[in-house]
Amino acid sequence: MRERVVLVTGGTGFLGQAVVRHFLEAGARVVVPWVAQAEAERLREQTAEGARLTLIEASVTDPAGADAIVAACREAGVLQVAVLLVGGFAMQPIHETERSTWDRMWTLNATSVFQVAHHVLPLLRETGGGRVITVAAEPALDRGAPGMAAYAATKSAVVSFTQSMAREGAEYGVTANAVAPRIIDTPANREAMPDADTSTWLAPEAIAQVIGFLAGPEAGIVTGNVLTLSLG
Questions:
Q1: Domain spans of the chain, in order of start
Q2: What is the 3-state secondary structure (H, E, C) of the chain?
Q3: How many angstroms separate the first and last alpha carbons of the chain?
Q4: Which residues have a Cβ under 8 Å from the Cβ of 45 and sit 6 or more positions away?
Q5: Which of the ends of the chain has fewer CB neighbours closer than 10 A, N or C?
Q6: With the C-alpha atoms ordered 37, 91, 154, 218, is the resulting torsion angle positive or negative?
Q7: What pLDDT is attached to residue 128?
């Protein structure tokens, strides 16, 4: 990964921070868009390799923001990896789900992936071996999810979109894969589920290792897949 340019959307989130640290420790140059300054500053403080970290204020759901992201990637070097982590979660039965919640899930989970991919795929094609990694979810793979219809529907869209990217990218050497982790061990999840058994929850660092593999040269023959990540 040394000196490779890696874009990580959602890089200021809890999983995103682990992914950013993984790539920085591997020697990559990492570009991270942000919308909350406090989160961006926290990420900067947590990374010792600040010279190889580019933080750019940009919304991944806004075309103008995507243009700024492309410019930042070009300035950093030759983009070779795009890790698209931005997303959101909502849990309500269908009859209680507001239209605003439905729209928010599509914006955060699906439109964010499309908007960035639309802008950065031409850069990845130029490398002749680019990598795209997205984040799906187990409910999207399990014939629907009671109480999580909006979330599961939008994550199903991410799966289909990723597979389409894989098919379109094949002739350019661009791979596209998704990871579908079960519950991630984050402070927010622990707060939301204080009585849960956390023994099978996934450490963000472990997920980052899998994403790092999919981003590497050894994964050139892996594309169009959804990797379910769990401890049982």
A1: 5-229
A2: CCCCEEEEECCCCHHHHHHHHHHHHCCCEEEEEECCHHHHHHHHHHCCCHHHEEEEECCCCCHHHHHHHHHHHHHHCCEEEEEECCCCCCCECHHHCCHHHHHHHHHHHHHHHHHHHHHHHHHHHHHCCCEEEEECCHHHHCCCCCCEHHHHHHHHHHHHHHHHHHHHHHHHCCEEEEEEECCECCHHHHHHCCCCCHHHCECHHHHHHHHHHHHCHHHCCCCCCEEEECCC
A3: 30
A4: none
A5: C
A6: positive
A7: 81
Do the beta carbons of residue 131 and residue 124 sit within 8 Å? yes
Q: Which fold has domain 5-229?
A: Rossmann fold (3.40.50)
The amino acid occupying position 46 is Q
Q: What is the token pair recorded at 98?
A: 């507001």
* CA quadruple 177, 183, 185, 191: dihedral, nearest 10: 140
Is the overall model pTM greater than 0.85, yes or no? yes
pLDDT in tens, 128-171: 889 999 999 888 887 777 889 999 999 999 999 999 999 999 99
pLDDT for position 46: 82
